[in-house]
Amino acid sequence: MAKPLMAMVFLLCFFALHSADDSSYRSLEYSILPRGLSDQKSLCSQLVQPAGYPCAEHQIQTKDGFLLGLQRVSSCDGDLEKQKGPPILLLHGLFMGGDAWFLNSARESLGFILADNGFDVWIGNVRGTRWSHGHTSLSEDEKEFWDWSWEELALYDLAGMIDYINSLTKRKLYVVGHSQGTIMSFAALTQPDIAEKVEAAALLSPISYLEHITAPLVRLMVDTHLDTIILAAGFHELNFKSDWGTVLLDDLCDRLVNCINVLSSITGENCCLNGSRFDLFFEYEPHPSSAKNLHHLFQMIRKGTFSRYDYGLLKNLRVYGQRKPPAFDLSRIPKSLPLWMAYGGSDELSDWTDLQHTIKELKSVPELVYLENYGHVDFILSMKAKEDVYDPMIKFLKSLGKSGIEYGDSGRNPYEFR
């Protein structure tokens, strides 16, 4: 009880001193997070092409005017203009971007592995991340730019990505999501016009219900209503590479939480990360998100719901015509849509009790892979993820019989088309 109370006092003082209009911050000799990249090159030129893989930048516009970055990746000896493999879209997690799929070596990173397996790889980047490109009329300095949560990411961003890839390739696509990318997928696939364009979905650290998360830093933020404090202080963008974001995390770790391993404080213990690549990871992560998005997620943790954003009684009546926000009905995901899910015993964000709740509401029976030692980030950054996660996932996708790719195990690129 004492720690949450002390944390609440600290956070109130912090946001009183560092209001949204305050541009003066103390200088830092050391920060747990390095500042953002000074050279804003493209994702293709930063991480994909230097590894020898063809990569093309695409841009789409959502129905509400956001300009999103998509990258298309081929195998080293492939041709982006003559892709024969099935399209597959990768969706990153909260405070991440499409770079998350390329932060290990080429032999260990899912984006490269899928390309080498003959897939037509597409990398999604949601609004607000550094690989997306703003808005048709709103500036990032305007609060309206940040007036969204994962609900809009699912129904606008993901819907737009799927429409674009489907129209360009003339094929249904596979969707692979991690963390926030899975909650987007669950919500989007309840919409028939989106689900009809998807061949199957593979979900890493799947979340829709969040009531039972145990990650210490997240529980601290939920218990102290940090999300409400942030919004009340006038913050709409959450950018932990900004001055105030870096100060906040540094002060939390100095005074309240043991953040020697900041990832463990947020996600739980990860078993198999390559410590030598942490500097690269924190060079790119975290990406910005919105305060409303965090507030929506924290609403779900407190209430145990998988619902649209809760505006409060009066605005709910105006927006939804009912007192409480409507729930996303997971039973509307087509029974015929194949689902594959991988979850970990040490994942403190994707809890088995919550996942059981999700599975119970689905009409179909998903194929499950359980990895006892895996934490939340292991599913995208583990040195063993290829053998533990990606190979079984690829085998599942190819077993569906519509991918047009043979599963092999020899040669530089053994996956030949039928």
UniProtKB/TrEMBL annotation:
Name of this chain's protein: Lipase
Kindly give the Pfam families that the UniProt entry links to this protein: Abhydro_lipase
Where is the catalytic site?
S179 (nucleophile), D347 (charge relay system), H376 (charge relay system)
Q: Which GO terms describe its biological process?
A: lipid catabolic process
What are the Partial AB-hydrolase lipase domain coordinates in residue numbering?
45-104
The record's GO molecular-function terms, alphabetically, read: hydrolase activity, acting on ester bonds
The family database entries (SUPFAM superfamilies) matched by this protein are listed as:
alpha/beta-Hydrolases
* Leader sequence segment: 1-20
Keywords noted in UniProt: Glycoprotein, Hydrolase, Lipid degradation, Lipid metabolism, Signal
From which organism does this entry originate? Cucurbita moschata
What protein family does this chain belong to?
Belongs to the AB hydrolase superfamily. Lipase family.
